[in-house]
């Protein structure tokens, strides 16, 4: 049997695929980042499976055990606390070991905070870069932000609520007018998506909020829209103004959708 890498909900316990539920029911053992956390999901869906902890502190020992189980034909499923194992969560080391041993790995896709945040932000494009958690150290954070300022497409990052105000301050200092979104508690009861420039978002979160945080950055200011897109933007502003929307509000809305400068759209529409 292949190692089954299973995506689990990022918040709402019903956001799990039928295929994942079937795999968890049939597994001889389920490897979990936190057995207590995974038990909540299994209990919610009436699954009584044998759970084993698998985390950064026991990866090496567990990998050897799992290779033995797979070699004996046992059915092994791997989950993390939320999302897909191996992406910013434990799992990649085990997957490499299984593949190196000539055994099969299959992935059962599902919920992802990266794609969910990217889509709900309204800043999704053809390409994006995922950078995981932002660095804890101020120097490393500033270095990364300087690099991201040159990236021409969307960026998705995780951040702890405690460090969010400080990280937004650095982001706003380097890229104050860059469009962004702070996505909090995605798929949960108190989900919140705050959109605006990094300057605006920095002012909105002067204190640490509660919950899981995903940050999305839109296109950099250095990636100016083509003349055709600017003309389309000005036409859209004109249509909104004709419909009764205040000019500054219309320019702001169109700027968020096109990546054009809000001030340029406002001045060009006068």
Helix content: 40-55%
Percent of residues in β-strands: 15-25%
Helix-strand sequence: EHEHEHEHEHEHEHEEHEHHH
Globally, the shape reads elongated
Low-confidence stretches: 221-226
Largest beta-sheet characterization:
5 strands, parallel
The DSSP helix count reads 11
N→C terminal distance: 67 Å
| Chain-averaged pLDDT | 91
Query: Biggest sheet, strands in spatial order?
Result: 3-2-4-1-5
Rg, Cα atoms, Å? 22 Å
| SS-based class | alpha/beta
- Total number of β-strand segments? 10
Q: Key features?
A:
270 residues; alpha/beta; five-stranded parallel β-sheet; five-stranded mixed β-sheet
Explain the layout of strands and helices.
Layout: E1 3-6, H1 18-26, E2 29-32, H2 35-44, E3 51-53, H3 59-71, E4 76-78, H4 92-100, E5 105-108, H5 113-121, E6 128-133, H6 138-148, E7 154-159, H7 164-174, E8 179-184, E9 192-197, H8 198-204, E10 213-217, H9 227-242, H10 247-258, H11 262-269
Parallel strand pairs: 1-4, 1-5, 2-3, 2-4, 6-7
Antiparallel strand pairs: 7-10, 8-9, 8-10
Write up what this structure looks like.
- With 270 residues, this protein is of the alpha/beta class.
- 43% of the residues lie in helices and 17% in strands.
- The chain has eleven helices and ten strands.
- It has helices spanning 18-26, 35-44, 59-71, 92-100, 113-121, 138-148, 164-174, 198-204, 227-242, 247-258, 262-269, and strands at residues 3-6, 29-32, 51-53, 76-78, 105-108, 128-133, 154-159, 179-184, 192-197, 213-217.
- The strands form two sheets. It has a five-stranded parallel beta sheet with strand order 3-2-4-1-5, sandwiched between helices. Strands 6-7-10-8-9 form a five-stranded mixed beta sheet, with helices on both faces.
- Strand 6 (128-133), helix 6 and strand 7 form a beta-alpha-beta unit.
- Helix 7 (164-174) runs antiparallel to helix 8 (198-204).
- The chain is elongated and about 75 Å long.
- The termini are far apart.
- The model is unreliable at 221-226 (pLDDT under 50).
């Amino acid at each position: 049997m292949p190692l089954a890498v299973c995506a689990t909900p990022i918040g709402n316990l019903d956001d799990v695929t039928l295929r994942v539920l079937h795999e968890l029911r049939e597994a001889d053992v389920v490897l979990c980042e936190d057995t207590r956390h995974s038990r909540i999901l299994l209990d919610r869906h009436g699954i009584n499976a044998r759970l084993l902890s698998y985390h950064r502190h026991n990866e090496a020992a567990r990998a050897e055990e799992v290779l033995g189980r797979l070699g004996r034909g046992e059915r092994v499923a791997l989950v993390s606390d939320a999302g897909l194992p191996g992406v910013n969560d434990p799992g990649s080391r085990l997957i490499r070991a299984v593949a190196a041993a000539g055994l099969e790995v299959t992935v059962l896709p599902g919920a992802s905070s990266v794609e969910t945040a990217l889509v709900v932000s309204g800043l999704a494009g053809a390409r994006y870069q995922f950078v995981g958690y932002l660095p804890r150290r101020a120097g490393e954070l500033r270095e990364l932000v300087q690099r991201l300022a040159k990236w021409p497409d969307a960026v998705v990052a995780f951040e702890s609520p405690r460090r969010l105000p400080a990280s937004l301050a650095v982001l706003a200092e380097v890229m104050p007018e860059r469009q962004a979104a702070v996505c909090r508690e995605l798929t949960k009861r108190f989900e919140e998506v705050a959109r605006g420039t990094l300057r605006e978002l920095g002012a909105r979160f002067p204190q640490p909020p509660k919950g899981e945080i995903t940050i999305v950055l839109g296109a950099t200011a250095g990636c100016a829209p083509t003349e055709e897109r600017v003309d389309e933007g000005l036409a859209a502003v004109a249509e909104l103004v004709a419909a009764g929307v205040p000019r500054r509000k219309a320019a702001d809305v169109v700027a968020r959708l096109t990546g054009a400068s809000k001030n340029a759209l406002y001045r060009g529409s006068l």
